[in-house]
Amino acid sequence: VRVVTMAGGEHHSLVVDDSGSVYSFGGGEASDRGEWRGGWLGHGNLDEQLLPKRIEALKGKRVVGVAAASRHSLALVDGGSVYSFGAGDGGRLGHGDTRCQWAPKRIQALAGESVAAVAAGESHGLCALRDGRVFGWGSGGAVGLGDRLGDYPAMRFGSAGNYENAPGDGLLSKQAHSPLPLHFPPSLPE
């Protein structure tokens, strides 16, 4: 197996081989108090994997990029689809809810978009589209919305450095924690 890309989270690692298969290894569950559950290895369970194991739910898809954070993972498939799995608190998986996904699930709000790259932060995810737009989801402060929690409609980063409602963009869900467009480069405050 020849590894072509990889990502490391706090509790796990992901590797992609030259055929586009994804392997994961590490801890599958981190909470000892039952506050949140794992699943960031993508095998449909909470089991620890001490050796790399192929993620069967992505079999037949050519994965070209991965991202890993402490409690969730992202996989970018050739053609631009994005899959997420792991802990869902804070909306970090991009499905418009806070449910955990123990196996990869396609982020439907990005259907039809041509994603070129993915990134995962502690409580959020980001993706860059081939046309230069950037989408983000998860906790508001981590995505640059200025606070930690809240219900946000689809928004666009305006030229004055503030967010504006973007109802005409025809983009995504208007639910909290769903992917939203961020147009870069933004005018950042000085």
UniProtKB/TrEMBL annotation:
RCC repeats lie at residues 20-79, 80-131. Residues 168-190 are annotated as: Disordered. Gene3D superfamilies: Regulator of chromosome condensation 1/beta-lactamase-inhibitor protein II. Keywords: Repeat. The keyword Repeat applies. The keyword NAD does not apply. The lineage of its organism: Eukaryota, Sar, Alveolata, Dinophyceae, Gonyaulacales. SUPFAM superfamilies: RCC1/BLIP-II. It comes from Alexandrium monilatum. This is Uncharacterized protein.
